[in-house]
Amino acid sequence: MNRYRNWMNRMTPPPGFHRRLMDRLESAGRTRRRPARVLGTAAAAACLTLAVVLLAAQGGIFWPERQPDPTAGVARTPEPVVSRQTPPPSQPPPAVLPDPDGAGEETGEPGPDAAPTPSPTPAPTPQATPAPAPNAVTVTDPFEGRPHGDLMLEGHDFPLSTDGIQGRSHPEGTFSEPMTGEEILQVLGGGDAPPWSLYWSDFTLWGTVWYGGDGSLWEVEISGQTEDVNEWFHLRLAPGTLPMASLPGVPAQPAGSGGNSTPVTAWSAQSSRPNTPKGMYYAAFLSGDIGVLFSSASMTGQESARLRAEYVIREYAGPGAKLSLDHLQCSRIPDWRDETLTLEQAKAEALGAYLPQTIPERYTFEMAQILAKDGTKGEHMVVRWKNGEDLLMVVVQRLPDSVRRDGDDFLPEEVTPEALEKHALPSTSIHGPDASYSFRVYRDGLYVDYYVGGLTYEEAAALVKR
Amino acid sequence: METAEDLEGLVLAHETTLYRAALALLGDVHEAEDAVQDAFLKYLEKRPALAGEDHARAWLLRVTINGCKSRLRAPWRRRRVPMPDLLPAAPEEREALEEIYALPPRDRAAVHLFYYEGYKTAEIAAMTGEAEGTVRARLSRARKKLRKLLEGEEL
To answer: A376, A445, B139, B152 - which has most CB atoms within 10 Å?
Structure first.
């Protein structure tokens, strides 16, 4: 682990990051109430990397490979090594409100949004089981997978640009909705089926639309994968600007323009590592007034991923592109809440009924926070008390879709000093177990978590009594 | 009223910590930069009342971690794996990195916050929104996989 610490100690933001960050924050501070949009249409065009002639089939695409930035993340001067014996100074427990996210990437289940500010709910995941059938679209291939000469393109080299694609922050209060199959087809140009293209056979498509807190359309993502999960793609769209672009290997290289063609950023990454895609191809461009970010991957080879990307470029970056977002309208804005409360306010909340009725006098109230998303994503309340270094924290969670009692959870009547002594989880720090402990009570369909420092088991058990 | 100097002081005090946490979760320097930027933008939006540096650090770390989790949940991101081979490291560090980045992201987050940042399991639980038992299970699972890396360390 010391090698990890040594390495991490050298990891500092790359040169220029601080200045860029401050510029961004100062800019955002001046227009704080408005959704951050890093790239406008003109700026986006200026950032584009590769010009692609899209007119005839003889035009091809040169796909620059990702190269690691040799300066990114490299410290100029190593910092002192933090060894296991000399851990960072102890910090007081974080005053935090837990993320109500109840699902992990391991499960592939879409979960509630992250605290404290709502962020996009994921679309169904490209795991072994495709998206839910009601919202999915299956692509059929009239050529039954046989090669089709329409996309057999020869390579052309194009000049590279000087700017990479910049990040874009979620607007405040972002929320998402799954797309229907009909909505997906309308985005892709209408009709009864997705536009057929090479190597799309047997893909299942699904989509998610993100809205800003004011209900305005923010971004759309349509994803697809084959049943064997060896091929997949993501088509991300944003009105008026390029979508969020935190993709690997966005080339910080230069831009050119190719005559009367649509400028397109395109890049690729190849890998021979096991269990990683053999080829990943990316493209970013403006299709009329819709920003497009496309990624395509294949676990079995590079050709299919490349052809999918080239198809999307040709189909949607050229004249007469048919992408449409006009039909995506927000029907309802969720009610968000993320507030710091006084103790009295916390007790007055519905979840306040689950707070301890009495706290040992030696503890003083420190803070309370509540996060709520209207009924569907649950509600969290955190209340903290301190006695010197000893922390007492109670977290009440209402997660209507997922709460059930686990084997380790207590029922209220089971919480006795003896049971806590036997079953409470002792807290552990890098120094080893310490005197604090925690336990969870399942009550009325809610979780109530107690993080206890400096209380006897008798005092802790008394916290649960009502 | 917070001044530009106050804001820059906050950024200077915490940007590296947040960057490292984001890098630990995301394994990508570009994404880590974006995640740090998002966290500070969130700070500007929320203007939370933070009681001191430690509270600010914890608040910003929580927001960063949540932001990273959102990124990891994003469909386009889910099938990607971190590529530590693209991160600069000495040969003897490379092996450690590959083992750690082979962990599931949430286990990796727990390892980073516990072993690198020095947080207690209860603190990590509060920060990640998981039960403490879950955090402990993550650490336990990670320790089994990182047995060689952790040889000689107290667990």
So the answer is: B139
Is the domain of B135 the same as that of B151? yes
Give residue A404's domain range: 336-464
**Is A170 in Cβ contact with B46 (below 8 Å)?**
no
Sign of CA dihedral B45, B51, B57, B62: negative
* ipTM (interface predicted TM): 0.88
A235 DSSP β-pair partners: A222, A294
**Closest CB from A4, A92, A99 relative to B66:** A99
Answer whether residue A255 is part of any domain.
yes
Is the residue at A84 inside a domain? Answer: no
Q: How many CB pairs under 8 A join A and B?
A: 288
Find the domain containing B59 and state its range: 1-80
Report which of A425, A427, A452 is spatially closest to residue A363, judged by C-alpha positions.
Answer: A452
Phi, psi of B10 (to 5 degrees): -65, -45
Of residues A86, A87, A82, the one with CA closest to residue A6: A82
Does the CB of B147 have a partner CB in chain A at under 8 Å?
no
Whether residue A29 and residue B44 make contact (CB cut-off 8 A), yes or no, is yes
How many beta carbons lie within 10 A of that of residue A307, not counting itself?
23
CATH number at residue B27: 1.10.1740
Predicted confidence (pLDDT) per residue in B43-64, tens digit = 887 777 776 777 788 888 888 9
Q: Among residues of chain A, what percentage have pLDDT more than 90?
A: 11
Instruction: Check whether B29 has a pLDDT greater than 50.
Output: yes
CB pair distance less than 8 Å for B58 and A91: yes
Structurally, chain A folds into a number of domains equal to 2
Cα of B101 to nearest chain A Cα, Å: 11
**R_g of chain B computed on alpha carbons:** 16
In a domain, A436, yes or no: yes
Phi/psi-derived region of residue A388, left when phi > 0, alpha when psi is between -120 and 50, beta in every other case: left
Within A10-64, strands assigned E span: 50-51
Is A439 within a domain?
A: yes
Total length of chain B: 155
Please, which residues 79-108 of chain B have a Cβ atom closer than 8 Å to chain A? 79-81, 83, 85-90, 92-93, 95-97, 100, 104-106
**Domains in chain B, number:** 2
Nearest Cα neighbor of A121 from A179, A176, A171 is A176
Residue-wise pLDDT for B71-98, tens only, equals 776 554 444 444 555 566 677 777 778 7
Rounded Cα distance between A155 and A142, Å, is 27
Contacts of B19 in chain A (CB under 8 A): 11-13, 17
How wide is the angle at C-alpha B10 spanned by C-alphas B5 and B11, nearest 5°?
95
